[in-house]
Amino acid sequence: MDLKNLFSKKNADANAEPKTIKDYLGLIVTLCLILIFLIIYFFLIRPTFKEQEVLIQDKYYKLQEIESMNNQISSLITKVEELELEREEKFKLFVSEKEVEELYQLISLSALRNNLKVNRLIRGEEEAIRESADSSGDVSGIPVDYYKIYVEYDIEGRFPDYLKLKSEIAELDKLIVFEKEEVSTTESRTVVASVKISLVRMPTR
After folding, report:
1. b/e map of 78-90 (b: 16 or more CB within 10 Å)?
2. pTM score of the predicted model
3. Residue 128 forms beta bridges with which residues?
């Protein structure tokens, strides 16, 4: 071992100047920057991220709710359209005053085409139908659901021709009920049909 060099290094360390704060300035600045960054991150950046995350989640939930509501609205629109179609189909079954007159014309013209004789064709009284009415009580204050219009006619002619007339009436796109049908045969082998039919009319609101 070189004792001379060893003693020279010890003498150099002993003669070196003591370290001051300037020697640690770089480390202090680095630690301060790290501390400042941590403060900014935890007190400014992170809360902002959390707030944005909450807003994004809230927006996502609202979008889901809107989509669900849109689906419900679409379903309701479809249901309303179906009910409207059903209402229109049912409404077609009811007759107006004009259509009652047209029924008279149909019976007369069909009888003429089929060589039938119309002995009688009259319109009977209208009957107010109240489905919720109690037959034993006063019904004057109960709204009318619909009216039944009665039409009576007597037809004379060949039975096959009478069936043609009856078929034409039954094929109408209206609610027509044959309330009474009495068919008798004459000595001349023709038939006389006494018929009472009913139609329905909506009440005037």
Report:
1. eeeeeeeeeeeee
2. 0.54
3. 147
- Whole-Å CA distances, 4 to 8, 11, 199: 6, 11, 137
As a whole number of angstroms, the distance between CA 151 and CA 124 comes to 6
More confident residue, 92 or 69: 69
CATH number of the domain located at residue range(s) 97-134+143-201 in this protein: 3.30.70.60
Q: Which residues pair with 120 in a beta bridge?
A: 154
Cβ–Cβ < 8 Å for 108, 169: no
Characterize the bridge pairing of strands 191-201 and 117-129. unpaired
Digit-coded pLDDT (tens) for 34-57: 888 888 887 888 888 888 888 888
At 73, list the tokens. 């609205």
Using an 8 Å Cβ cutoff, are 145 and 131 in contact?
yes
Cα distances from 41 to residues 36, 37, 47, 48, 181, in angstroms, run 8, 6, 8, 9, 96
For residue 83, the one-letter residue type is L
Give the tokens for residue 83.
Answer: 């009910």
Instruction: Give domain limits for the chain.
Output: 1-91, 97-134+143-201
Which residues have a Cβ under 8 Å from the Cβ of 179 and sit 6 or more positions away? 150, 196, 197, 198
